[in-house]
Design goal:
Strand order of the largest sheet: 1-2-3
Shape: elongated
Number of domains: 2
Distance between the termini: 52 Å
Largest sheet: 3 strands, antiparallel
Helix content: 40-55%
Oligomer: single chain
Strand content: 5-15%
Length: 174
Amino acid sequence: MDWDWSRLGHRHIAGMSNTVLGNLTIDGGRLTIQVNSAQRGKKIRKTIEKRLGAGVRFKMDEISPFRPQEAWKSAQDPNRRESSSNESLMQNLEVKQYLAESMRSHWEGWVDMKIPALGNRTPREAVRTADGREAVEALLQDFERERAIQPEMNELNRRGVQRVRELLGLAKKG
C-alpha cells in the first residue's frame, strides 16, 4: 500500500488545493516514510508513535542529499512510466481545465506574494520603483525562459507571466 501524506492548501501558492508533505508505504509489517525535511520527519514520526504506541518500533533514519541534476535527468528520461501517464492525463479536458485554473490562480496570487529575490517585497510593491520594476521584469523573463516537460505547462506559464504584466502595468519588452 502506498499513499501521500498531505494537507489542504499551500502556504505559498494560492491556486494549489493541497501540499504533499511526504509519502508512506506499507510493505508487509514495514512502514517506510519519505519526506523532504527533517522537521517533517520528526512530525510524522511523533504522530505515528503517538497513535501506535508500543505497537511501533523505529528502526532508522536515512538522510540523503537532494541532487537537482539527478532529479532533472530522471524527469527527462523518456523511458519513465510516469511520463506516459502524465501525457495521457494531459489529454483529459477536465485535467487541462483544472491545471489552467490552478495556474491562473497561482500567477494572479504571485503579484501579492513576498518574494525573497525582491527583498521580501511583493511584486506589486516592488514595481513602485525603477529598481523594483527591473527586478520583477528579470524574474518574469527568467520564468519565460524556463521550459517544462509538458508543452501545455509552457503555454500556461507564458499566459501567467502575461497576466502578471497586465496586473502590474508592465509592458512586454521585446
